[in-house]
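Changelog entry: the DUF1230 domain-containing protein record was regenerated in this release. Current contents:
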Amino acid sequence: MIDSSVSCPVPTEQQPVNEYEELKSAWLFRDCAGNWRNYLTRITWIYGLSWLVSGPVSAGSFPPHKYIWQFLLSGAAGASLGSVLILIRLYLGWSYIRDRLSSPVIFYEESGWYDGQTWTKPEEILTRDRLIVAYQVQPILRRLQLTFASLVVLYIAGTIVWQIF
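Regenerated C-alpha cells:
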C-alpha cells in the first residue's frame, strides 16, 4: 500500500504514473496496450493508408501491366515506411514512459523551462512504478520490437524476391 501522506512536489501532469495513464489512453498509443488483434488491425490500417501514397509512386516507376512484381514490392516497401515511422513514434513514447517510471529521480518543471527541479521517489512509489514497467510497459515494448523484427524479415524477403524477378 502506498502511503498517501507522502508529499510529491511534482505537478500532477508530470508525475510518471499520470504520464503513463495519459499515454495509455491516447489515440495512437492505446492499441499498443490492448490485445494483439486491435494492435495488428491498427498497424494494418496504417499500412493500407500508406499504400495510397506509395502505390501511385510505385506505379509511376514500375507500370503494373509490365512490371507487376516490382510494382508490388516497391509499393509494399514504400507503404511499410509509413508503418515504420508510426512504430518509431510508438516506441519512443513508450520508452520515455519506461525511463520516467524506472528512474529513482524525476526531473520536473514547476512553472517553466527555467526552473527545473528533481525529486527522489520514495521507495514505495519507486516499487509501484517499476512494477508498472515490468508488467505493463515492457510487454508493449516487446510487442513493438517484435513488429520491427517482422518488418525486417519482410524487407529481407522482399529483397530476395526482387532479385529473383
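The CA atoms of residues 2 and 124 lie 6 Å apart.
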